[in-house]
Amino acid sequence: MSHVETSTPAPASWTIAPEEVDSPVAAALWRAYYTDVSDRYYLLHEGRTTAPEELEREVAAETGDDLRAPTGVLLVARYGGEPAGTAGVRLMGPAGGGTTAELKRVFLRADMRGKGGAGLLLAAAEDAARALGAEQIILDTRLDLVEARALYARHGYEETAPFTERMYAEVWYVKKLAPATTTATAAAAG
Questions:
Q1: What backbone torsions phi and psi does residue 175 show, to the nearest 5 degrees?
Q2: pTM for the full predicted model
Q3: Which parts of the chain have pLDDT scores under 70?
Q4: 20, 54 Cβ separation under 8 angstroms
Q5: What is the pLDDT of residues 47-99, one digit of tens each?
Q6: Quick check: 85 and 107 in contact, CB under 8 A?
Q7: What does DSSP assign to residue 68?
Q8: Hey, which bits of the chain come out as E strands?
Q9: What's the chain's Rg over C-alpha atoms?
Q10: Regarding beta strands 158-160 and 98-108, do their DSSP bridges make them parallel or antiparallel, or are they unpaired?
Q11: Residue 116 DSSP SS3
């Protein structure tokens, strides 16, 4: 009887890196994002999924140009090398004596959720905001996106007064960002 060794494949890992807003990877992930959030909205409010022309209108309306350097960045998360999600950060300007960044298009594909990527993507977006010079990060979302709202609360975001007037903005969050040196020192000490 011969002995055959088997090995368990190594678990897939997450990587997060900047991506051009007009890349095919970004386009595919944004289409998935808009399909997901739009379908959830229409199912909740009208009992139907998004009509193709509505989806095309939404995708075309948001070019992502505000997520280009030097005042913005689009991050793409990959799981085992496969594109899995996005987060965008753009500078808004001074607010309360500091610089504010807005967090946009935070999304993980449904089949990639529950694998630990959401927190990593959020941390990378906060690091990107710091690198852009932001002292705080803000975002708006919808009340029905309960998973996103729970994610933000778990990571220290606090509900705040409205700061935008967008059709789908129903709840607003803010988080003060610790300086990068403080975060790095705390991580090294921990």
A1: -145, 130
A2: 0.84
A3: 1-11, 93-98, 180-190
A4: no
A5: 999 999 988 888 888 889 999 999 999 999 999 999 999 999 999 865 445 68
A6: yes
A7: S
A8: 14-18, 72-79, 82-95, 98-108, 136-141, 158-160, 171-176
A9: 18
A10: unpaired
A11: coil
